[in-house]
Amino acid sequence: xxxxxxxxxxxxxxxxxIGERPVEQDWAGEYILV
Length: 34
Known about the structure:
two-stranded antiparallel ribbon; 1 helix; single chain; elongated; 34 residues; alpha+beta
């Protein structure tokens, strides 16, 4: 499966927290193959 949902995982191993954050569209165009 290929795709991009506009989010990246935000994982803090020290605190044991998992979350997600939005990705700027210009950044995604440069670094993520969509």
